[in-house]
Amino acid sequence: MASQTLAATKPTSTVEEYKQGVTREWLYDKRIVVITRPNTTRETVDAWFEVIKKTYEDWPADRAFISLNDFTAGYTHTPYETARIKELTSMPKKGYLVYSAAVLPKTFARSLIMMLMGTIQLLRRKDLDQRLFFDKDEALAWVKSCMEKVEAGTLPSVMKPTKR
């Protein structure tokens, strides 16, 4: 789709509700997914994990996975959440690249998180570009720009095979 056509496309939205108040919202004809998690209880983290996992597994292999995780309603980092995230990152790769934004509430921990981002960037996967935001509109603008760049061909959507 040409950028001009995409710019005119409205961010049509379909919201699906899941257990524990987790929602999955589709934007731009299912080219961007927004998953909202209201808190970090084990039950909610499990519901969020299942929604993310199913979305990831069902995503078309020829399209970049472009997502936004909205944690602004309530976020407390827990060891259990870390374990579930490790499960997600160890899932088999499908060949597409991942552009993912996470929106966190503005807290005193913001400065610490931003300091640690440099270290996290060193450890990130080559198929994953993940950014942290404290404003949902900024995060949405970033994932939309990723979608536009992928569709214009200026940002890759799938991993290029490596030569051995």
Describe it.
The protein has 164 residues and is of the alpha/beta class. The protein is built from 5 helices and 6 strands; from the N terminus they run αβββαβαβαβα. It has a single domain, classed as Transcription Regulator spoIIAA. It is 40% helix and 20% strand. A 6-stranded mixed β-sheet has the order 1-2-3-4-5-6, with helices on both faces. It is globular, with a radius of gyration of 16 Å.
Question: What's the helix and strand layout?
Answer:
Blueprint: H1 3-8, E1 13-17, E2 23-27, E3 32-36, H2 42-58, E4 65-70, H3 79-89, E5 98-103, H4 110-123, E6 128-133, H5 136-152
Parallel strand pairs: 3-4, 4-5, 5-6
Antiparallel strand pairs: 1-2, 2-3
Helix pairs in contact: 2-3
In short:
This protein has 164 residues and is an alpha/beta fold. It is built from 5 helices and 6 strands.
CATH architecture: 2-Layer Sandwich
Helix proportion: 25-40%
Main β sheet profile = 6 strands, mixed
Rg computed from alpha carbons, rounded to a whole number of angstroms: 16 Å
Question: Class by helix and strand content?
Answer: alpha/beta
Coarse morphology: globular
Average pLDDT figure: 80
Strand order of the largest sheet: 1-2-3-4-5-6
Number of extended strands: 6
Keyword list:
164 residues; alpha/beta; Transcription Regulator spoIIAA; six-stranded mixed sheet; 40% helix; 20% strand; globular; disordered N terminus
